[in-house]
Each structure stands twice: as structure tokens, then as C-alpha cells.
Amino acid sequence: CMVRHYKFNIVTKDATRLCSTKPIVTVNGKFPGPTLVAREDDTVLIKVVNHVKDNVTIHWHGIRQLRNGWADGPAYITQCPIQPGQSYVYNFTITGQRGTLWWHAHIVWLRATVYGALVILPKRGVPYPFPKPHKEAVVILGEWWKSDVAAVINEALKSGSAPNVSDAHTINGRPGPTPSCPSQRGYTLQVQAGKRYMLRLINAALNEELFFKIADHQLTVVEVDATYVKPFKTETIVITPGQTTNVLVEADRLTGQYMVVASPFMDAPILVDNVTATATLHYSGTLSNTAAALAIPPPKNATPVATNFTSALRSLNSKEYPALVPLEIDHSLLFTISLGVNPCSTCVNGSHVVAAINNVTFDMPRMSLLQAHFSNIRGVFTDDFPGNPPIPYNYTGTQPANFNTNNGTRLYRLAYNSTVQLVLQDTGMIAPENHPLHLHGFNFFEVGRGLGNFNPTKDPEKFNLVDPVERNTIGVPAGGWTAIRFRADNPGVWFMHCHLEVHTTWGLKMAFVVDNGKGPNESLLPPPSDLPKC
Ligand code: C2O
Q1: Which residues form the Plastocyanin-like domain (predicted)?
Q2: Per the domain annotation, does 522 fall within a domain?
């Protein structure tokens, strides 16, 4: 294993999309940002230098950061932001992980343009547990706003309604031709007939679960969230913000061009974004003016397509890559996910939309929770986050009349190495919606999912405790639930939040605090000397 050094200069750069130009915040002037490549067991040092006028942090999404939350990145959770003119070196070792992850800014909505791929190759000499691809390509899906994204956040916080949706989706930073800007070229993936390719798909969109497909080509899913799965074939992938999916594509046509599409999947009636991003799969030797075979995306409410895809995911669970599902449970938790409306004196209508877990709307602290935990600073957070809904109700049925939530910076405390079963229950508060929940610091197993209310006596009988998919971000179905299990073997403070940025902004977030164990390698490491100060 080796030590790899990267330098991330945070700089502003003009970018033209949808036939108009605006300055965006980037890493090294690139959009999407640079791909970070490492091998399992490598140590990676990334020096982030902030040359812009906004505060910055970078999160290495899905990297477990064992005992090393100082390198995790979410602002005010594990570190204070890197202020203008300052720098910070993220220093971490990749342990027991290989596959596709990604990195992104983790402060307000800066990740709209500050993101890139993180490719972890297996240890030298260790093959993939699937047929070797001829070539690999990173394919990052995203969103594009014509307006200033910061203005969209303020709107989300102040208004009584949902903020503006994006103006387009993107594939590797480009929307492709759109009705309003037919001249713009999309991303092109070059292939040779008869060869096999691996696409490393990442959903970096701020607020949209997406479908992905390629005309006339099947996709073989081999990995999600940097964990191997039992390979299966599908026409369409569904991928939530935060998730990654590796697929094999056989270039089994002789020639031609084939459309690649990324299109929105959502059940929420309040969003109206219909813009599909397009790219091209191009067989070498084909004239570039050849008409591309069309890919028809599923309709945006195609829940069965999403359900079929999700239920096909299984851990590989081989001898080399066993699924270590916790079988005994120390903490059995149920978290409701809801939207709500709270009074707000500075808001347009005297109230604003909020979001909550177990009716708690998370207040961001003014210093990092990890520092407060490490140095025993009182008054920054409490550790009384409710493990179950304070007042149980019919979560997906008739809703209580009161949409108000309670604010707090409340954490849930876990003993080192204790095991957790967490049921994430969507509710019909305001509207049922899909929620991609992301847990920092851990991978978890998805042992069950269903529609309606979770039934604590009947549903666990159907749990898959043998080969459930292992991941770091899970799509909680609209009007349904999902059950996950993990072992709290990583001391520190770990954020959990909806990866729809608008919901996070509204307060759909909380954190776990995991105490140190008694063994020599069971405690949080001390902070690095260059850790930014608030
Ligand atoms: Cu990819 Cu806390 O985020």
C-alpha cells in the first residue's frame, strides 16, 4: 500500500450550460471535479485550499473513516469549515473497502458543483469477483441551475413552499441537447464492438432520485456503494442521491450510436421537473451524424421499476466478501421521517416548511459536534434523541392535525460495538415522499422494506439476514419503510441525513455519538493540528 497526495484548490470558474454562462465554485477549475484514485489499504492525503469567499468542507462519501471522524467533512458535525484563505489536509486510510464512492462539498448547497468520483481499486493482485472489463468509465449524474444556487437555499428556508427545482439534469456535467438549448453537446462514451465496459455510476444530484438506461443495451449490476452484489441484469437502474452503482455493459452491437438517459424518479406531487439528461454511447467507426437509437426513460412515477430494481439487490456474500449481518440487536429503533410546518417570524407567510426525524427538527450547532464530544464541551448537544416516535400514530394513514415539530441538536448515544436495528418509516405528513437516507461512518445492511406502516411483530419474520445488500445510502420508499442493521464499531460522531439537500436544509438530519471502547484500538484518535477552528 502507498500514500497518495492530492491538492484540491477551491476556485471559481465560469461555466456555460443551457446556453448561458455563470461562475461556479469548483475543485481545480473542473466540473465535475477530479477523480480521486486509490487502492484498498492506501492512505490518502488531500490538501484542500480555499480560494473562494465562501466557507468550504469536503466529505468523502462512504469512506468509513475508522476512528477518524476528523477527516469525514460535514460542516459543524465533524469539523469547523475551512474559511477563505485557509487550508486543511484530509488524511485517511481506506480500510476494508473497494469500489466506487465519491466526494462532495458538505456545507450548505455547495455540492451542487463541488463533487467528483472516488475510485478505490482492489489490493494489488486481487481481481474483481466478476468478468474483467476492457475499460472503465466514471459516469456522474447531477443537476444544473441557471440561477445562483445560494438564492435557492434562502428560498427553501424562508418560503412556505418548496424551492425551485433545477433547470436540467446532467451526465458528467452536461445536460445534452435540450429544447431550450438544442446546440449543446452531451457526454460521449466511446466503445469498441465486442468489448466489455464497466460504468461507475454516481448520483450527485442535489434533490433527485434518477433512472438511468442505455438504448438497446442491458446493464449487469455488480456493485453498489463500494460493496459487491450478486450480479444481475437490468434495463434500468434507479439511483438515489448519494448512491453509487457499478454496471458492466457488453458492447454487443456491431456499430451505431445509442442514447443514454438519466431521468427523474419521484412520487412527490409537488415537484415538476421533467428534464431528462442525455448522453451517447458511440461505437468506434460509426459516423457521428448517425441517428442515435432512442432510449425511452420510465415515467417519473414508475415506482414498480424502482421496486423491481431495489428488490433484486443482494450482497455477494462469498467466502472473500461475507455479509456480516448483526443477528443480535442491542438497540431497536424506529425513526419517522416527516415534513412539517413551523411558525417563523422572519418568513413570508409567518411559517415555513420544516422536516423532522421522530418529530425533531435538527438545529445545526455553532461548533463541531465531534470536537464537543472529544473535549467534553457541554451545551453543544444533548444525547436524548428519541429512539422511537414520541407519540405513535398511523404514519401512512390519516395524519394528525398538528404539523409542528420540535427543534434541537439531539444525538443518539451508542456503546462501542453495540448493534442497531433502525426502521426508517416515511409518513404522510404534508405528503409521502422518497427519502434517500445516508449514514456517515458505517455501512449498513438493508434487511427489509415494505409499504404502509412497519409491523414490529410480522415484518421481522420476513427479514433477509443472509445476504441483504450492504450500503451507505438507502432509498426509503414513499409511504413505506425500510429496516437497516449495523454494528457501532466506529467511535465518534456520525451524521445521518436525507441526501435530498432541500430536506436536509429543512432539518431532516440527526447524528449518532458512538463512545470509545476499552481496547487499544477502540477509541477516537486525537484531532490533527491543522483542524479548522470556528
Ligand atoms: Cu454525501 Cu452527509 O453526505
Answers
A1: 12-123, 136-285, 385-517
A2: no
Does the residue 321 lie in any domain? no
The residue nearest atom 3 of ligand 1, judged by CA position, is 61
Q: What domain range is 262 assigned to?
A: 130-315
Whether residue 415 contacts residue 293, with contact meaning beta carbons closer than 8 Å, is answered with no
| Residues 363 and 433 placed together within one structural domain of the fold | yes
Return the half-sphere exposure (C-beta side, CA atoms, 13 A cut-off) of residue 55: 16
The CA 486 to ligand 1 mean position distance, Å, reads 18
Closest Cα partner for 210 from 262, 167, 171, 169?
A: 262
| Within-domain flag for 149 | yes
Q: Residue 269's pLDDT is what?
A: 47
Domain match, 241 and 388 both = no
The domain tally of the chain equals 3
The Cα-based distances of 198 to 201, 222, 352, 469 in angstroms read 9, 9, 44, 20
Q: Identify whether residues 367 and 460 lie together within a single domain.
A: yes
Query: Are 150 and 263 in the same domain?
Result: yes
Q: ∠ CA(17), CA(501), CA(434), 5° rounding?
A: 110
Same domain, 158 and 252: yes
Which atom of ligand 1 lies closest to the CA of 241? Answer: 1
pTM of the model: 0.97
CA of 73 from ligand 1 middle (Å) equals: 9
Q: Are residues 205 and 250 in the same domain?
A: yes
Instruction: Output the ligand 1 site: residues, CB below 6 A.
Output: 59, 61, 74, 104, 106, 242, 438, 440, 495, 497, 499
Cα(353) to centroid of ligand 1, in Å? 22
**Same domain? 94 vs 143:** no
ipTM value greater than 0.85: yes
**Residue 254, class by beta-carbon neighbours within 10 Å (0-12 exposed, 13-18 middle, 19+ buried)?**
exposed
- The CATH number of whichever domain residue 391 belongs to comes to 2.60.40.420
Asked if residue 348 and residue 258 are part of one domain, the reply reads no
Q: Using the mean position of ligand 1's atoms as its centre, give its distance from the Cα of residue 495 in Å.
A: 8
Q: Which atom of ligand 1 is nearest to the CA of 104?
A: 1
Atom from ligand 1 closest to the CA of residue 504? 2
CA distance 295 to 309: 18
In angstroms, how far is CA 513 from the centroid of its own chain?
21
Low-confidence ranges of the chain (pLDDT < 50): 269-270, 272-273
- Work out which ligand 1 atom sits closest to the CA atom of 473: 1
pLDDT score recorded for residue 270: 45
CA 84–ligand 1 middle distance (angstroms): 22
User: Among 411, 478, 414, 409, which Cα is nearest to 444's?
Assistant: 414
